[in-house]
Amino acid sequence: MKTAHLLTALVIFAFVQITLAQIPQTISYQGVLTDENGNAVADDSYKLKFELHTTPNNGRVRWQETHEKVPVINGIFIIILGSVNLLDIPFDEPYFMAITVNDGERLEPLTPLTAVPYSLGLADSVVVGSKIALRQVVRSINGVADQVTLVGRGGAIITQDGNRIIITAGSGSGSSAWELSGNAGLDTSNFIGTLDTASFKIKVNNSLACQIINSPDPEFATPLPIILGGTKNHVVNAAQSGGSFIGGGGSKFSGLANQVEGAWSTIVAGRANRAGSLAFVGGGNGNNAPGHYGVIRAINNRV
């Protein structure tokens, strides 16, 4: 019989057509129409109306569309749900399919949708940030996202303990790292300094407090340091003053800076002092020891 109320629909399968490039909001739906005796209906074109309900018994209709002429051969039909009306509902709750044939009675029972169509809820083909609740995953580390590799340097060790990543800074016992809290058992090859001719600077409150300048030994042509303390306005010729130490000092522009003029010289403190090679000025003001081996410990003296 072809009367609508005697027709039943048997859903064979439904699946979502998904491609990573572009995901269509459609469901390929295949079923079988039979009469009350279970026989396939006659080959013909049938009007089929599809509805998605929120419950199996007259629930709220969330979506519907009608296909006017659906070919049915041996009782089998195939249609694409969403090809007439956009299938834009959120697949975040159970839905039940209702089918009406040729404007007749709705076929019973309604067919529940299984899990696969609910992948339409991932319309961007992946689990994206907007679909992840806050505080559930680590989205990035210091602005670096996707695959992040942690690498330990300077003796740091990276370990994992459950859901914790532990970064342990190197310390003692031969480690190449220096600890601010103190060090012991360090390898003799370890050091704090530079690997080139750049100066080594120590700052306090972002102001220069001490500086070690590289200088060649004028006699043996080997690198010798020049240590500058006190004011940053000392006058020094790095090429001729290797092995020297300068402290104290005043303003460079008022002529009060300490100045070394040769190698292996020392000015401990004071201002406006000058020392030549192998000379020593203990402090004071305006002392001048330009020659070799000069020693001045008072004020306004000259050797």
Give a description of the structure.
The protein has 303 residues and is mainly β. The chain has 2 domains: 4-121, Sandwich (Immunoglobulin-like); 200-296, no CATH class. It has no helices and 20 strands. The strands form 5 sheets. It has a 7-stranded mixed beta sheet, with no helix packed on it. A 4-stranded antiparallel beta sheet has the order 4-3-6-7, with no helix packed on it. Strand 11 (207-216) and strand 12 form a beta hairpin. The N and C termini lie far apart (131 Å). The model is unreliable at 1-21 (pLDDT under 50).
What is the topological layout?
Elements: E1 8-16, E2 27-34, E3 44-53, E4 61-72, E5 76-81, E6 96-101, E7 111-112, E8 157-161, E9 164-168, E10 200-204, E11 207-216, E12 223-228, E13 235-236, E14 245-246, E15 259-260, E16 266-267, E17 274-275, E18 280-281, E19 288-289, E20 295-296
Parallel strand pairs: 12-14, 13-15, 14-16, 15-17, 16-18, 17-19, 18-20
Antiparallel strand pairs: 1-2, 2-5, 3-4, 3-6, 6-7, 8-9, 10-11, 11-12
